[in-house]
Specification:
Layout (H helix, E strand, L loop, with lengths): L1 H12 L9 H10 L8 E2 L6 E2 L17
Antiparallel strand pairs: 1-2
């Protein structure tokens, strides 16, 4: 994975730095800091985001396409 390769490169250049061992460890650190993310689905035609009150809606009202 590219992120793991980047971490390896940074560890070589900065051996004194305390860096996470891999992508999953880095993701856990960010999550613990409150910097997590949530996936927001979009319609196939990008006519609407399925977010907040529209989270369970279909796109039929806008572009007539099912999720």
């Amino acid at each position: 994975m590219a992120f793991n390769d980047l971490l390896d490169l940074l560890k070589e250049e900065f051996p004194f730095a305390e860096l996470p061992k891999n992508f999953q460890k880095a993701k856990n650190i960010l999550r613990n800091l409150g910097l997590d993310y949530k996936n927001i689905h979009a319609s196939p035609n990008d006519c609407m985001l399925h977010w907040k009150e529209h989270e369970r809606d279909n796109c039929r009202s806008k572009c007539k396409v099912s999720r």
